[in-house]
Amino acid sequence: MKKVFAFVAMMGLLFGVNQTINAQEETEAPAVEEVAQNDSLAVDSIAAAEVEEESQAIGEDKDAEENQGLHKVLKTKFIEGSAGFMSLVAIAMIFGLALCIERIIFLSLSEINSKKLLEDIQAALENGDVEGAKSICRETRGPVASICYQGMMRIDEGLDVVERSVVSYGSVQASNLEKNLSWITLFIAMSPSLGFLGTVIGMVQAFDEIQRANDISPNVVAGGMKVALITTIFGIIVALILQVFYNYILSKVEALNTDMEDSSVSLLDIIMKYNLKFKK
Q1: What crossing angle do the helices spanning 83-110 and 70-80 adopt, rounded to 10°?
Q2: CA distance linking residue 173 with residue 136, whole number of Å
C-alpha cells in the first residue's frame, strides 16, 4: 500500500513539473518572436538607410559631372589621351581652322553684285565714257571687277585682244581663289592619321604592360587602350570639322568661278556693242 501511494505521488509530481515547463515555454516563445521581429526591422531599416545613402552619393556624383562643364571634360580627356599626340592633333586643328577662316573671309569679300557692276559699265560705255567705266571697275573689289578692268584696259586693241586678256586674267583670279586649299586638305588628312598613330602607340603600350605584368587582365590593358581610343576619336572629330569648312569653301569658289565666266561673256558683249556704236 505504501508503494502504491509513493507511485501516485511521484506521478503527480512529474505531471506538475511538466505543466510548469510547458507554461514557461509558452511564455518565452512570444518574447523570442518579438525580439526576432525587432531585429529584422532593425536590419531592414539599416539596409534601407544604406541604399538611400548610396543613391544620394550616386546622385551627387552625377550632379558633379553635369556641373563640371564641357571644357573641363575635354581637358580631362585631352590629358588622358597622351598630351603628346593630342597636342599634334590640336595643332593640326588650329592651323586648319585658321586657313579655313582666312579663305572664308577672302571669298566673302570677293562676292559682289556683278549684275549691277556690268549695268554701270554698260551705262558708262553707252555714253562713250571709257575712263568712267575703268574707274567703276577700279573702285570695285573682287575678281569680277578685276577681270572687267583688264578688259577695259585693252578696249581699243580689238575684241580678240580683250577676250584673250579676260581669259588669261580669269585663270589668275581662279588660282587666287583656290589659294591655301591644298594646305587645308593636308590638315584634313593629317588629323585622323595622327589619331591612328596614337592608336598604334597605345596598343604598343598595352602590350608592354602585359609583358611587364605577365598578365592579360583588363586592368593591365585598359590604360593603353584608353589612350588609343581617345586619340583616334579626337583625330576623326578634327578631320570632320575641317572637311565641313573645306566643302563650304569649295562651294564658294565654284560660285565665284561661275560668276567670273558669266561676267566675262557679258563684258565682251558690252564691248562689242560699244565698238559697233563708236568705232564704225
Answers
A1: 130
A2: 19
| Amino acid occupying residue 152 | M
pLDDT mean by block of 10 residues, the chain; 280 residues: 46 49 46 46 51 55 50 54 72 93 93 90 88 89 91 85 88 89 92 80 71 66 66 87 95 93 90 78
Distance CA 88, CA 170 (A): 38
CB-based contact 178:143 (threshold 8 Å): no
Residue that is written with C-alpha cell 588669261 in the block: 168
pTM (2 d.p.): 0.67
Query: What 8-state DSSP symbol labels residue 179?
Result: T
Contact between 146 and 169 (Cβ < 8 Å): yes
| C-alpha–C-alpha distance, residues 36 and 229, integer Å | 55
> Alpha-carbon distance 248 to 60, whole Å?
44
**Cell numbers placing 173:** 583670279
Q: Enumerate residues 6+ apart whose C-beta is below 8 A from 163.
A: 268
Rounded to an integer, what distance in angstroms lies between the CA atom of residue 230 and that of residue 81? 5
Do the beta carbons of residue 193 and residue 235 sit within 8 Å?
yes
Q: How far apart are CA 116 and CA 148, in angstroms?
A: 13
Instruction: Find the helix packing angle between 130-138 and 143-153, rounded to 10°.
Output: 150
Provide the 3-class DSSP secondary structure of residue 154: coil
For 34, other C-beta atoms within 10 Å of its C-beta total: 10
